[in-house]
Design brief:
single chain; mainly alpha; 2 helices
């Protein structure tokens, strides 16, 4: 019975992950279409934040 619960939880987590990813991609596309952000803005920011976390530094909120 425990295995079934684990598989159900994994399935639920995959659905939540999919919906979150869809929401993020949709938001990025709308911002690009409206000219608020450029084509490479998101990837540049992602690399910057990834680099900060690899060095155990968090960005300073302004």
């Amino acid at each position: 019975m425990g295995d079934i619960d684990i598989f159900a939880q994994l399935s639920d987590m995959k659905m939540v992950d999919y919906k979150n990813t869809l929401a993020i991609v949709s938001l990025i596309e709308v911002l690009k279409e409206k000219g608020i952000i450029g084509e490479n803005d998101v990837s540049l920011k992602a690399r910057e934040l990834d680099s900060l976390t690899k060095h155990n530094r968090m960005p300073i909120k302004r």
